[in-house]
Amino acid sequence: MRRGALWRLFYRASLADHAYKFLFRPGPEGEAVSLDCETTGLDPGVDDVISVAAVRIRGNRILLSERFEATVRPEDARSSSEAIKVHRLRERDVEGGEPMRRVLPELLRFIGGRPLVGYYIDFDVRMLDKYALSLLQTKLPNPQIEVSSLYYDRKYGNAPPGTTFDLRFASVLRDLGIPPLEQHDALNDAVMAAMAYLALRDMKARGVRIRRERSGQGPPPTGG
Fold first, then answer.
1. Looking at the chain, which terminus has fewer C-beta neighbours within 10 angstroms, N or C?
2. Alpha helices in the chain (DSSP H)
């Protein structure tokens, strides 16, 4: 049995509220959800979610009419000045939001058992897992589709020694010809990640690679 399947069995056995068993049932065939969170910082151990957005993908379509958006009022952490410069959400901008313990149930119903798509999606899921563990006594079981790994495969999968790896989101969008929306807005980032996913999936199906230039070598991607 694959490691991912074993973890899903463990999470299901750990589930505290059986009303959430739907998370362990496969989502509709051909569907996924692109997800993004804005946070008070970059440490899942101490930081909180302040904004979350998700949009459904069905086949080759991004369903903007089927999206989820929420501003979240953090209960413990406060955004650092560095984080505010990135996402531009001040304390007064989020004080009218709901706490994550109220946002999460609705978000989980929106996601269901669909795979989660994102740019370094592991971080977003780790942030949500903090709240899921409190609500469900288990982590999110959804499969994850990492955009940076798909991009790495299409551009650097057969790279020779001496190749520089540039996995910045802006570089991904530029190479795929995706017009950049304003970044570090949860919905915009979720939509752009969905666009990148569909483009990269199509390239893989057609056996197309992204052209690259040779230079000094860097590290491989860390996304799942």
1. N
2. 3-14, 81-87, 91-94, 100-111, 121-136, 147-156, 169-176, 186-206
**Alpha carbon distances (Å) from 92 to 33, 68, 69, 72, 100:** 29, 22, 18, 12, 17
Beta strands across the sheet bearing 49-58 = 61-71, 49-58, 31-39, 116-118, 144-146
Same domain assignment for residues 63 and 41: yes
Q: In the numeric block, which tokens belong to residue 45?
A: 């151990």
Q: Is residue 105 part of a domain?
A: yes
Residue 212 lies in a domain: no
Does residue 221 form part of some domain?
A: no
Query: How many residues in the chain?
Result: 224
In a domain, 45, yes or no: yes
Q: Are 35 and 48 in contact (CB under 8 A)?
A: no
Q: Which tens digit of pLDDT belongs to each residue from 26-71?
A: 999 999 999 999 998 878 888 889 899 999 999 999 999 999 999 9
